Every structure is written in C-alpha cells, then in structure tokens.
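Anyone else keep sequences and structure tokens together like this?

Example one:
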Amino acid sequence: MKFQKNILKVLTATSLLIGASSCKLDDFGDINKNPNSILVPVTSSLLTNALLDFGTPSSTGSLNGALYCQYFAETQYTETSLYATPQIAWDGIYAGGLYDLQNIINNNTNAATATYAALNGSNNNQIALARILKAYRLLTMTDLWGDMPASEALLENVKPKYDTQQEVYNLIFKELKEAIAQFDAGDTPKGDIVHNGNLTRWRKFANTLRMIMALRISKVDPATGKTQFLDALASTGGVIDANEDNTALTYPGGAYKNPWFNLYDGRKDYAVSDVFADIMLSNEDPRINAMAQPNSTGEIVAFPYGLTRDDAITFANGNSDYSFIFEQSLRQATSTSQILTASHAYLARAEAAQLGWTTENAASMYSKGIEMSWKQWGVFDQAKFNTFISSDNVSLATSPLTKIQLQRYVAFYPNGHMGWSEWRRTGVPALVATPKATNATKAIPRRYVYGANEATLNGDNFKAAVGRLSGGNTQDAKIWWDK
C-alpha cells in the first residue's frame, strides 16, 4: 500500500469559505498564474490525503469525545476531562479533507478537467467515493456542533448559511444513497488506501453508516429513522457483515505512523479510565485486555477519571504501570485503526429489531455483534463467549434495549465521536460528571461551542444558528437529536 502526498493544498484565510473569494483568480487574466505550478490537481493524491486522518483520534472530535464519554482519562493535563469550554474552530476540517474531497468532485465533474481526472478512475466512481467520504466528515461535524454550513459550504460562498442539523442529516442520507447508485463498472479510484478501490466494501460502509445515523435520530424522528434503516439494510451491496469487510486503515509506518503509536511516542497523557474499565471488568469481558495495556502481572490499572492536574500527577507517580490505551501490539507504528465494523452493524441491527423497526431477531443480532467484536479484538473463545453471553449482566432476558445500547457503546471504543454521540442519545451507560468539573454547570458537555471567528466572518448566519440553540452557544445546549 503506497501513501501518496497531496501535491496541491489550497488553504484559505477565512473560516469555512473554502475555495471561496469575493473574486476569482481568472478575473485577473494570467497575472496570478504561475507557469511552473500544477494547475490541475492529481485526484488520486487528493483522495489519499483525505483518507490519511480517517482513523486519527485527534481528528474531528474523537479524542475529546472519548474523554467526555469516559473511555479515557487524562493523566497530566486534565482540562478537557474537567469540561473546560474551548471554542473549537472547524476551519481545518473544511480546509483539509473536505476541501480535497470537493476538489475530487469538481475536477471529475468539470468538462475541462474530467478527462485528466479519469486517469485515476472513472469519473463516476471518484465522485461517488468522494461523496461518501464527504458525508462521513459532515456527519462527524454536525454531531459535534449541531447546525452548520453544509449545503452552501465549499461552493465559493463566503457566507454560507448554517443548515439545521435535521437538514444536514437529510442531506447526508441523500448523498450516501445517491453515491452508492452512482458507482459504475469503470476503473476504480486510485489513491484509495483503505479499501484499495474495492467498491463493494465502500457500499457496505455507506449502508452501515446510514443505519448508524438512522438510530441516532430514533428519538427525535423515529419515522424517518425506520425508513432510512430499512432502506439501508436492503440497499445494493448490503452492510458490513464480516470482519474481513471492516472499514479500517492500516498504516505503513515511517512518515505515516499509526496515530495511537504517535500518542505515546515520548508522551503518556492518556490512559483507560476507571469508568470504562469497571464496566468491562465487572462483566468479565476479555476485550479489556486488548483495549488497554495490562501491567507486568496481567492486571488492568485503570486511571481515575476527572482528576485535577495535581491529583492526576500524584496518582501517576504512585501507579507508574497505569494502563495505556490499547495493548501494546495494537498500537505499533504499522497497526490498523478500525473505523466501521461488522460489530457496529450487527449491534445496530439488534437495536433496530428491539425497537420493532425490523423483523430480525434482536438476540441473534446482539450475539453476533458481540462475537464479531471479540474476534476483531482477538479474544474470542467459544466456551468463554457462551458463558459471557448468557450471564445476567449481558443476557437480553432483562432490560434488553439498555444492554444492547451498552454493548454498542463498548463496541465503538476507542472512537470518541461515536461513543459520545451514543451516550448523548441513550444515556447508556449512566455516566456521572466528575465532581472536579470547572465549567459553570458542572455537567458533561453536550456539544462543541462554535469557533470564535464565526461571529465575525459569518455573523448573520452564525447568530441565526445560535438563536436556535436552547441556552445559546454553550457546551450545555443540546443538538437536534439529543433528547
């Protein structure tokens, strides 16, 4: 697998305008054209660049989300675990991967560049894959901030409107369904470092993502959720149903190391939290020994969640063998980061069946989902699994919906975006805010606060979006589906 560098990266000086300007370069004739520059980007390089941070914990809110949903604990600098209120800008997301993906779409659509772009795969296949990846990024963003520019973003509009989150979700549902139908029999996209141009696997990814989204709106719009879920489940290409089809990114090392390796390369700022570890250990779930690093005697030394900096340093000094995130063999420079898996798909099907959305057997889907997760983490043993799945804390004989939702929370580890979103939607597990919280309400954050530049760069649309938030632009305001 060869990673290619992006040979064309254009960054704007504005917040989310990406590619936007009050005037265009061609308004000035040739005066702004460098005769030695590459005027048409290599779309395979743009695709590779857009996929490089696909599994990165610090990208698009995953690391903060993992702290908010208490997968992790901070061991030194504990501000995020204490719910400090940063204004997190989205500029880099729009100007980074989203801009690359929009460029792929533009260059494969424009008659002047489409023939050159087609050297890297059929125009339709490149556009369809870019649309799927763009939809995934928009989903992670709207689940962090709520209302946001989507329909008018990336289209040379310096002041795009903030779509409501409901509108963003509808847009993403549409994009995913249309993209699957757009794939053709032509050459597959070059630069695909995730599935190597395997469009069947990308169809499965898109359909599975639609199921995840459909359940996310199960409280606020169950009718649409059920319709979308059933449509995705029956869609061409199917959903992820085997670990061999998981969407995952394997890093080659060198200049492109696995981000979890980088997280501990000279630092040790994060550990598995006692909250998450206690859930796993109380159920005698062997995945914890892969999800976290056992000490020399094989024990998990979980780090207390939500400590002050002084208390965290004291604990770390007295417990130097505290458990890092992942067993060591899973956070090597060349390790694989899982993004969307068979376990996620089966457990989503279990919840949908429990809600009465499908006629599938909830218990069967639930058991298969946990089995796929155990196999993914390399801990599957049939006898131990049989004991686990029939235990009181796991069996669906009582509180079936809550238990399904808890296993979905576990299966999404370490993806903080997904874990935090599921906890906000379901309240499972019953997390308690740290008593050391420094924010005014002392509550676990429910969203990101809009970046500081938005009020200046896109004032009217920003104010309209803030006006729709109960309580204003705070981290305590709930987004649309958070009921």
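And example two:
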Amino acid sequence: MDGSAGATGPTGAAAESPADSSAGLPTGFPADIHTWSAGRIAASVQAGELRAVDVVRAHLARIERLNPQLEAFRVIRREQALAEASAVDAHAERATLPLAGVPVAIKDNVEVAGEMTGNGSGAGSSEPATVDHPVVVRLRAAGAVVVGVTNVPELCLTPMSDSVHGVPRNPWKLARTPGGSSGGSAAAVAAGLVPLAHGNDGLGSIRIPAACCGLVGIKPGSGVVPPSIDATPVWDGLSDHGPLATTVQDAALCLSVMGADSSLATLDSPERLRVGLSLRQTQVGLPIDRRYTAATTAVSVVLESCGHTVSAHRGRYPSWQGTGALRSWFSFAWSGSRPLEHARLDKRTRRMAAVGRILEALHADGARARAKWRSGAADAFFGDFDVLLLPALAQPAPSSARWGQRGLLRNTYTCLRVASLLSPWNLAGWPAMSVPAGVDEQGMPIGVQLVARPGGERLLLSLAAQLESARPWQRQAPGWD
C-alpha cells in the first residue's frame, strides 16, 4: 500500500468508472464545479441557475474517478444521491434551503438510513441503519445531498484513518495519512470530491485531519450539535459533530445547519480581542515541531495587524490532564469494543481495549481528570484571554499505512507525538477549530488551533474569517484538476 511513497497529487491515470455519472451534463455546465464553495453551489441551485442533479452528477463522476487513489469513501451512494438531488430540484421551497444541492460526505460512525454504519471495523453488524442520525437529518432538510460515507480508523480511535475498509491517502502527498479519525472526510474535501464533509471530534478528530489536509475544521462546544440518535453523550461527552470545509464561511454555514442555529452563519469582524499565544506541549517529552511554532507565531503577527492584542500565554498544562486524556482514550477503546467480536478487531484495537479494561477495573479510567479539568481547571489555565492560539499538530502527519495491524506501543507513541495538543478542549467541552497557516518545505499544510470558552463558536469563526481575509490560503490540494 506504500507504492506511491513520495508522490504529490495523482500519480497516474485515474481508474475509469464503470458508469460515468457525468454523462448527460448540460452544455455550458461549469467544468470547475469541484472548486466552487458550498455557499456558491447552494446559491446557484436556489436561483435555478444550476440543477442539483447536475451538480451531484458531476461530483459523483469525480468521486468515481479519483476515489480509487484516495480511498476516501467506503460507500458511494450513486443512485440514492441522484434521487435525493432530483427531490431538491422539485422542492417547493428550494430557494430557502441553505445547502440546496450541495454534495456532502458523512463520516462512517453515524447512521445514514439504508447504509451499514461500519465505524472502521469488520467486527460489527452489517445491518443497514433504519433512520438517519440527527446531523444527517438536518443536512438533508437543508437541501444537502449525501453522496457517500467516508473511511475512518477502527472505532475512530486514532489520527490515522486506515481500516479493513481502506487506507485513505492525503491529497497533498499520497504517502501521508489525511489524519483521523475524520480522515476520509478530509481527503474528500481537500481533493474537491465534495465541498463539505461531516466529521466528529472526541480527542481531535476534526482538527487533526483539517490540519493535515489544509482545511477549516471546527469542533463546537458540548451540546451545540446533537451527539446521537437518542441524545446519549458519546465518549462521556467529549465527542462533538462539526464540518470540514475549504472556507470559513462554508464551515460556518454547515455548522449553522448541524446546530440548528442560523446565527452561526453570520460572521462579523470581531472587536479587539485578547489573544493568548501558547507554544507549550501538554506533556514533557512531546516536542512541538519548530515549523509549527513558527507558523503559529506568524499567525499571531497577522492577528496583531488586524487590531487584536496578542500576548504570550504562560500557563502550563497540569500533568494529570495529559495522563487523564491518555487513560480516557484507552477506556473508550474498551467501552466501544465491548459489544463487538474481539477476534475480528484490529490488533491495535484489541490491545487498547485490554489496557482500557484494566484501567476500568482499577478505577483509573480518566473520569476524575475529565471532571476536574471541566469543573474549573480549564478555565484557570485559559486565563484572561478571549481566544487561545496554538499549533494544531505537534509533529507532521504519519505515513498512510495499515497502522491498525501494528503494535500498541508504536501506535500510542505516534498518536501522542502528533496529536497531543487537541485533547484538552475535548475534556473541557469547549469550542476549538483548526485553520490553515501555510505549507512546509515539503509542500504539506500546517494548521493552527483557535480555542474559545463555551458559546464561542461564532467568535472563533469570525476571527478565522478575518484571518482568511488577511492571509488567504490555498483551498484544495494541488494537482487534482
């Protein structure tokens, strides 16, 4: 699976689709539709300038042509998506649908009616879901069209998205992972297969792939988006649903639909903010790559030029916070694997579950650390700032490989080195997002993280939009036209 090591963008002729979904597109249909923002697509469909069915047909053709290289999708919903798009075109109130005709991808750990929810595993049920997850319900009601289900790592446990269903690759460099656990979704957006994708984030799983793939990804605070069909918190309330997009406005539009709060889509230039620049690691022995600290510092200069006050954040993460996140991670592996046939799980998942079972028996599953951080320690750490600015990743994205069949120690070390800066804000239940901040000398994206207190989703999006205006980024990975 590593035959394309070192390649950037497509490495050869794309696989031919057995049935070309682009057949029948009208004369003059925009050939660059895959570069359009979700907002632009929706406005064109609302006005009747484009038909949703043609927009979806064009995106399906691109998915069918490029997915064999990227392995972003586990399921491509060709016939169902075209039928859904036709229903949007016939909708009596199409002009009011905020995501009219916008193709979206759904992460493979929430229910899509008629599809099996794989959760990256071959050990679960193969029965299709009978109802949609609330997030899918809201996206469909807004006029979005579900074109497919994206690949994730088993039980969505790691920042690498390989599983028995596929090994997603990063469109910026095929030898690298697109991150995880929303890696398939991120790869799909970064390569222009869809303008928007659903993700969720329990210990960084939206922000990690956003940073790996040069995207905007926001994890809202607890309770903004319904966690599950029956409103049961996922991962003890640490996991929240959010969008992956190429622009801040698209992310805001999608989150406004997911959270049923139209005000989130209206962004204003924020007043003068107190921004804390934090360049500390969460735990000793986990260094931050100097390129990422430099990129974060450069963003702080841009924010200062926008009129904000940036000061060094000198707080130190308490040691128990990092170990509590680690213990929580293993305990979630154990709780998530309990109903499954363990013999069919990946090697890594079995080992993680075994550790989690021991931690639970010892009453050392991280619950007390989570409660302590959420009940006041996070607020004390945050200090007097309105927003924290810090690196998203601590180290570059790992290789795209079958990590699930590798050993526990190697996986744990890699995950901690790359993704340790994100978990504090899951434990706190606070909103946080990743925003593009340039590329490194190898042409790979760099992301920075913005964090706010509860209720600060619109503040973060508005600040990110200001940053995007001041220093625009490349919206999609190069070489996929």
